Amino acid sequence: MSLSFLFIPNIFEGGEIGMIIVLKPGVSEEEIQKVVDKLKEYDYGAHISRGENRVVIGAIGEKRMEEKILIMEQISSFPFVESVIPILTSYKLVSKELNPQGTKIRISEDIEIGNKQIVIIAGPCAVESKEQLWEIAGFIKSVGAKILRGGAFKPRTSPYSFQGLGVEGLKILYETKQEFGLPIITEVMDPRDLETVAEYADIIQIGARNMQNFTLLKEVGKLRKPVLLKRGLSATLEEFLFSAEYILLGGNSEVILCERGIRTFSDFSRNTLDLSIVPALKEKTHLPVFVDPSHGTGNYRYVPSMAKAAIAAGADGLIIEVHPHPEKALSDGPQSLTFSDFKRLMGELKNIAAAIGREI
Ligand code: PEP
Ligand code: MN
Fold first, then answer.
1. In the CATH scheme, what is the homologous superfamily, with its name and number, of domain 17-88?
2. Residue nearest to ligand 1 atom 10, measured at CA
3. pLDDT of 44-61, one tens digit each?
4. Between residues 183 and 63, which one has the greater pLDDT?
5. Mean of the per-residue pLDDT values for the chain?
6. Listed residue (226, 229, 282) closest to 254, CA to CA
7. The CATH fold of domain 105-355
8. SS3 for 206?
9. Among 205, 322, 331, which is best to mutate for testing ligand 1, by the most ligand atoms less than 8 A from CB?
10. How far is it, in rounded angstroms, from Cα 114 to Cα 101?
11. Which end of the chain has less Cβ packing within 10 Å, N or C?
């Protein structure tokens, strides 16, 4: 049975439509009744629409997906049924209605994501050495960044590019946290590394390429640790929210969504930073929303403008790549801000935050 999934508003005459059943032309009343009876057997109501040459039945009710699929299979096997189309109930746990005030995620005594405070995460694309990370940590802290980023397991397009220091990188991150008192965020790519990464990190990052790695999402859902979930390179808003739903469904409700640019036909930047998803997400979900202008543009010259625009658009925080010597960086040098550029940007961001009644 091939199933096509429809995303349409599924509230209908007081009940939710769980699936749509299209009958073949020329069905008899008796055959229509067979479908209605079958639905009744599973506690579904039926809404019958009689078109000029087709009858369509809306099954009213909601079931768990497994049960729904079984009912669909049974109904599909009637010879007079042309197709059965399930209507996916939309995301639930991430919905705004569930927490209209917005989710707040406490990271440390003085950091609460999703509150009035706009939280700036900064650091290198990848942890390269202890010296590199200490230099960066000391600097970003001195200009007001609150959380240190740094990849230990790097998702590189080419297998020949620097893949990150792995566990050694995690250790450096942890030592740096101890020294500078900055919470750390780092990416996990493989469920087999999750336990180790979770031991070291304060926030677990799921990268864009893994946004739909459902095995990883389910594992992360079992943790009780904040997760920053990046939007996939071609993910729609619904797909993004469904991925977050996986994590919440596992019992972990501390999810931060992060827009990091999507792949479009536009060829002047690495990705197209879709800032309009910020207000759209704010409307639909209670989860905090971050923006990554570094991967979003791929070019240090565009990062400050997009960082400022993201704050103005209502983002709860930013994640920005900073490197003391971008020309020597082992990854993403072209999009990394130098210390002086980052310092200038932090000053500007504070003014923008103040203008919209928030603070950095
Ligand atoms: C990163 O932040 O290091 C990263 C690889 O980002 P993304 O998954 O958005 O490409
Ligand atoms: Mn990077």
1. Phospho-2-dehydro-3-deoxyheptonate aldolase; domain 1 (3.30.70.1140)
2. 208
3. 989 888 877 889 898 888
4. 183
5. 93
6. 226
7. TIM Barrel (3.20.20)
8. strand
9. 205
10. 10
11. N
